[in-house]
Amino acid sequence: MEGTCPRDGEMTRMSIPMRYSPDDRYAKYRRALMEQLQRGRNKDAGY
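Below the sequence we write its predicted structure tokens.
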């Protein structure tokens, strides 16, 4: 897969999520980031 689309020149992205791996070293960081983002949205909404 190329990094940019040959038609419109935009960045390409994967259409499927990453495959689950029990050996994923960065899973705890992704979960912490998602939790932090969710808390930020709730704070903005007044919860």
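Residues 29 and 35 are 10 Å apart (CA to CA).
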